[in-house]
Amino acid sequence: MAELHISSLVVHGLPQRVPTIRTAIANIAGAEIAIAEATGKMIVTLETDSQGAVADTLTKISLIDGVMSATLVFHHVDDAE
């Protein structure tokens, strides 16, 4: 059975790196920035097909230059159909 994983993250980045961080996140499949503040705080939503993909995407975002932290705050699994 196919699954749909919906997650949200709080991302804190260096304020001067916000434009670069936003671009990098926008280029990640299934990731969308819901809110981004000039202070570097962002809410990011993810739609993935597995729990492993959630973890991989969280790691990818954490490794973006200028990101100080990325924390999973919500995770829901549903039937993809």
Commentary on this structure:
Helices cover 26% and strands 47% of the residues. The chain is an alpha+beta fold and 81 residues long. It has one domain (3-79): Alpha-Beta Plaits, CATH 3.30.70.920. It has a four-stranded antiparallel beta sheet with strand order 2-3-1-4, covered by helices on one side. Strand 2 and strand 3 (41-48) form a beta hairpin. It is elongated and about 45 Å long.
Comma- or semicolon-separated keywords:
single chain, 81 residues, alpha+beta, Alpha-Beta Plaits, four-stranded antiparallel β-sheet, 2 helices, 47% strand, elongated
**Helix and strand pattern:** EHEEHE
Q: Supply the number of structural domains.
A: 1
Helix content: 25-40%
Main structural class: alpha+beta
Short description:
The protein has helices at 18-26, 51-62, and strands at residues 3-13, 31-36, 41-48, 67-79.
Secondary structure elements and pairings:
Blueprint: E1 3-13, H1 18-26, E2 31-36, E3 41-48, H2 51-62, E4 67-79
Antiparallel strand pairs: 1-3, 1-4, 2-3
